[in-house]
Amino acid sequence: MHKIKYLLGKYIRKFVVSYYRLLGVSIGNNVFISHHATIDTTYPKSIIIEDNVYITSGAKIIAHDHSVYRHIPFNEDDGTGTVILKKNVFIGSGAIVLRNVMIGENSIVAAGAVVTKDMPANCIIAGNPAKVVKYFVPKK
Fold first, then answer.
1. Which residues, at least 6 apart from 24, have a Cβ–Cβ distance to it below 8 Å?
2. What is the model's pTM?
3. % helix, strand, coil for the chain, step of 5
4. 42: closest CA among 60, 16, 29?
5. Do β-strands 114-115 and 96-97 pair in parallel, antiparallel, or remain unpaired?
6. What is the pLDDT of residues 54-75, one digit of tens each?
7. Could you read off the pLDDT of 73-96 as tens digits, one per residue?
8. Which domains are seen in the chain, by residue range?
9. What distance in Å separates the CA atoms of residue 24 and residue 44, rounded to the nearest whole number?
10. What's residue 75's pLDDT?
11. What are the DSSP E strand ranges found in the chain?
């Protein structure tokens, strides 16, 4: 029974990646996206996920923000942005990555973090709003 559940989950995750690629999200090789994760497909071409990225259950990747459509016109910002997840990024359970964010290679976003700005490579990111809590040297 365990083996069947494992294989079924594996095929569902492959389907999820294929589904997001079909919608226009740029996704590299060997990417894991939990079927309980959410990737914003309002502007799918503004999301770039590079190789070996791991997005766990409950994580949200959001490339737009329509809070700019208030009662007063706001011409400086149209509410769109980009999200770039560089190689080997891990997004923890329940983390949220908002628009106009780039997360550097080998970085880890902790569970429940809310990433509102660019983050460097080789670090652990946590908190709300997220900040770098530790730098590390990745193993080769």
1. 41, 44, 45
2. 0.88
3. 20, 30, 50
4. 60
5. parallel
6. 999 999 999 887 665 555 565 6
7. 656 666 778 999 999 999 999 999
8. 2-135 (2.160.10.10)
9. 5
10. 62
11. 26-27, 32-33, 38-39, 47-49, 54-55, 60-61, 83-85, 90-91, 96-97, 101-103, 108-109, 114-115, 123-127, 130-135
